Structure formats: C-alpha cells, structure tokens
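testing teh design pipeline on a random one, pls ignore if ur not involved
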C-alpha cells in the first residue's frame, strides 16, 4: 500500500538564527516539486523540522542567559510562521529535540553497535581542570594557527576559513573559565564508514545523479573514508548515549534522523509505526554544503540499520544576493521575515523558479532583475492577457464567454505543451517552465494584437468574432496559468475564482472554458515600484 508513497524532505535548518532567503530557496524548490507530484496524483508527503542540538545552540543560549529549549522554541515558532508566509506546505515540520528523535537515534545506535559498525576508541581532548569538563572545539578559543587572528574557535577560523584541530590553536583558552585547557584522554564512539565503501560506490550512481557531484565523490573515495566520531562529552546539548554517563550523540548523527522522526510524528496520528512500513520512496533536497553528510554517513547509517535508503538526493547551489555571498556586512543578508514585509511571497517563488534548474550552480537574487521579471514578465506580459481580454468581455459581452473558440487548433497546441511541462517539473527544470510560459504568453499577446478584439466588438458584422477571439485568448491563458499552479498556488487560485461556474482540476485544463459568465479581474498582483533596496 505504501510502496507508491513519496516522502520528500527539505534539510532541517539549524535553529540558532532566523531563516534567510537561502533557506527559503530550498523550501520553495522542494515545495514546488511536492505540489506538482500531488497535482499529478501521487501520494506525496513533505517533511522538515528544526535541527536543534549541538554546541553553537548551547553557546548562544548561554550568551542570552536562557535555556537551549527556550532558544530553539523561539526559532521553531518563527520558522513555522515564515514557511506559512511563503506557502510552504509541509505535512510535518518537527524537531530533532523530540521524543521520537531520541528514541529512533537510540534504536539506530544500538543496532549499529550490535552489528559492530560502531567501535570505541580512546582519544585526547582539551579538558578544563577548573570546571572538570571536556571542551568541545567551540569551547576553546585562541590564535588561528594559519593567519594568527585572535579569538578563533577550535575548529574553523572565521577570518581565513582554515579548518584545523583544536590542539593546533596558539595560546588556547577555555571559553568557560578562561584558564589554559589541558589534553586529557576520553572514550569516544566511532562509526566504521569504511565498511560501507563498496555499498556507497554503488548507491551513488543511482541516487546522486547530478553530474557536478561525481568529482567531489571521487575525491572522497580516493582520499579514503575515515571513521566518524559520533560522540561528544559533557557539556553538550543533545541526546544522551544509552548506557553512558555524560556522553552525547554528535549533532550530525541525530540531525538526519530528524527526517524520520518528522515522518513518524506525522503518521502517529494514523497509528502507523514507520518501521513497519519500510517501503516508501524517500527524496532529500539539500544544499551543496551538506553533501558530505547526506552522501556518505546518512546512507551508510540507513544501510547499517536496514532502513529504507534515499531514492534520490537532490542538490542545489547557494543563493547569492546581487552577486555576493549573503553577508550582514555588505547588506546582502535578507531575512525571510524582512522580505515578506515588502513583497508578495509568490513573487519570490516566481523569481526563483525562473532561475532554478537541475544544475548545482549558485543562484543570484538580483534586485533589479527581480523587479524587472515581476513587472515586465509576470505582470505586463502574462497577467495583462487576462486583464485586457476580460475587460472587453465584461464591457461588451455582458460578462459572457463565447460558446466556441475562434481557433481550436491553437487550444490543442497549447494543451500539448503539458508533456514538456511535466518533464520540466519532474527534472526540477523550473526555469524551463517559466520560459516556456513566457514564450507562449508572447504568442497570445500577438494573437490579440493581430485580431484587435477592441475593434471587432464595435462592428455588428464582427461582433461575435470579437467575443470568440477574447474567449480563445482567455483559454490559452488558462492553460498556461494551470501549469503555473505548483509555483504560484495563490495567484492561480485567485484567478480561477473569476470562473465561478467552472471546475478546475490538476494542472492541465481538460476542456475549454466556454459559454459561462466571468467575474471582474481583480488585481491579484501589483507592480514593484520601490527600487531603493
Ligand atoms: Zn585564520
């Protein structure tokens, strides 16, 4: 029963800051695909949530003098609101700080341990003898060993981006007590990634088919798969390792398990245990920065516990703003909540769709280009068709569409576009969809201009023809409009409301809309005037 179910996920945003347009890019890309799948009849479910554990969250909560739970709850609520504002339609938006996630993480760990995919090794770590605690990398600060910048964390330098071992820091200090930390031996748990070498090589070819990734993967294999430290010592905000005192799962172990917890949370209300229905199709949408975790550890872990494997991992590039990497210092950091105060959310869905395809390249949000695409393409070109023709119908034909089309061949030609539209949706080539819709909008505008229905309606000889020309243009427009539904669901709904007596289904207009009364076209989208940003 469940083997034709499609479960789709967007990566879980790390809950130590508000969502920005880069996050929204991924949610929009996923949401469009999910809506498309649902429109064409699949049982498609969409899951995400917050990634709520780890040192950065613990540190941020400490700085604000609140508990980590209070912190993550603040972001959880803010994310839910942002997703609602951008019409992102998750079946479950859950949290890795949840009962389900704790249980599933523990079950996975015990199973992997039992099958000897996890081993124990003594390692050295910095220890704060003043407070008697081990110090995670981010609890040690010192001089960067590469560029000598002061006050850098024990993993990555924020100035020169070098990554290193905490022991390499010059003059390291404990962030907690300010004393010089010392090396101390501690027991850690490691995941035997190398045991999955040949499995992963096979799995890649099927599930990571985007060309740009293959080189990256080869690089990893050639340098050898290293065992992965999945444990952290106290102090840590995370899930406790069963049978251990003061040891926790590293956040990257329980974060992807959050996908399954989110699915389980949703199916709980139907009394379904996801472990009993291990036959669905799982698709993960992710950014290129987290390929490593999703392409190596995650499938290996799932294989290790005999859980269903992801069918596809779909990777996108970063979002840049006006040509720059998003950053607060050059004013290119745009929070989702700030964007929504100024613009219609569906404008962003339209614009990003214009730019998104199946390549892993960075996508630029260029503000002038954004205004231009909305004003001249969406409004002046596309929506203008319905605005101008409906006016003629209302003013001259008493709101009535004609009972036949002026050219039924044209209608069929437009309808036939649906085959290519479906391929574009399936292969995430949203850019192809918008380009096609714009190209065929141009043709409708030319058709209207050639026939001049505003003149035809003034002459009794051509009066009927004027009505048929407008009705034809409206029908061609409606075909294109339906194709747009997964991208701009609200706009499509609003325009469909003009045709009260017609039932629309799916994303393909099955038959022409004829001989019915239409409502006035309300302005469903206005031009962007403000270019100051
Ligand atoms: Zn540095």
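output:
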């Amino acid at each position: 029963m469940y083997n034709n179910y499609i479960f789709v996920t967007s990566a879980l945003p790390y809950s130590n800051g508000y969502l920005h347009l880069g996050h929204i890019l991924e949610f929009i890309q996923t949401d469009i695909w999910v809506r498309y799948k649902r429109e064409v009849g699949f049982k498609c479910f969409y899951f995400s949530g917050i990634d709520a554990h780890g040192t950065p969250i613990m540190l941020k909560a400490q700085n604000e003098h609140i508990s980590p739970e209070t912190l993550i709850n603040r972001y959880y609520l803010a994310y839910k609101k942002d997703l609602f504002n951008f019409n992102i339609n998750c079946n479950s938006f859950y949290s890795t700080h949840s009962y389900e996630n704790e249980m599933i993480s523990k079950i996975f760990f015990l199973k992997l341990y039992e099958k000897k995919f996890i081993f124990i090794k003594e390692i050295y770590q910095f220890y704060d003898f003043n407070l008697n605690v081990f110090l995670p990398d981010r609890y040690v600060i010192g001089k960067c060993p590469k560029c000598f910048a002061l006050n850098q964390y024990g993993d990555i330098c924020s100035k020169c981006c070098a990554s290193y071992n905490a022991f390499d820091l010059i003059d390291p200090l404990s962030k907690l007590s300010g004393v010089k930390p010392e090396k101390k031996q501690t027991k850690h748990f490691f995941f035997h990634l190398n045991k999955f070498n040949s499995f992963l090589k096979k799995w890649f070819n099927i599930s990571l088919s985007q060309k740009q990734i293959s080189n990256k993967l080869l690089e990893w294999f050639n340098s050898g798969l290293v065992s992965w430290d999945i444990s952290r010592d106290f102090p840590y905000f995370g899930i406790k390792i069963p049978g251990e005192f003061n040891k926790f799962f590293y956040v990257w172990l329980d974060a992807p398990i959050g996908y399954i917890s989110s699915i389980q949370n949703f199916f709980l209300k139907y009394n379904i245990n996801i472990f009993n229905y291990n036959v669905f199709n799982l698709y993960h949408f992710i950014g290129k920065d987290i390929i490593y975790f999703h392409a190596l550890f995650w499938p290996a872990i799932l294989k290790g516990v005999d859980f269903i494997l992801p069918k596809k991992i779909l990777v996108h590039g970063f979002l840049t703003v006006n040509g720059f990497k998003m950053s607060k210092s050059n004013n290119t950091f745009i929070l989702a909540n700030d964007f929504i105060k100024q613009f219609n959310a569906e404008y962003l869905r339209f614009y990003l769709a214009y730019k998104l395809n199946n390549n892993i390249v960075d996508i630029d949000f260029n503000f002038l280009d954004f205004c231009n695409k909305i004003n001249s393409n969406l409004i002046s070109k596309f929506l203008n068709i319905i605005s101008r023709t409906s006016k003629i119908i209302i003013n001259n034909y008493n709101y009535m569409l004609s009972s036949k089309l002026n050219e039924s061949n044209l209608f069929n030609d437009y309808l036939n576009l649906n085959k290519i539209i479906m391929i574009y949706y399936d292969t995430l080539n949203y850019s192809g969809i918008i380009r096609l819709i714009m190209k065929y909008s141009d043709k409708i505008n030319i058709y209207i201009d050639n026939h001049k229905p505003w003149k035809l309606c003034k002459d009794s000889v051509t009066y009927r023809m004027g009505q048929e020309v407008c009705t034809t243009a409206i029908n061609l427009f409606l075909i294109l409009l339906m194709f747009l539904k997964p991208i701009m669901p609200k706009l499509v709904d609003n325009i469909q409301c003009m045709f009260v007596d017609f039932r629309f289904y799916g994303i393909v207009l099955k038959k022409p809309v004829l001989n019915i009364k239409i409502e006035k076209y309300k302005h469903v989208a206005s031009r962007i005037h403000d270019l100051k940003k």
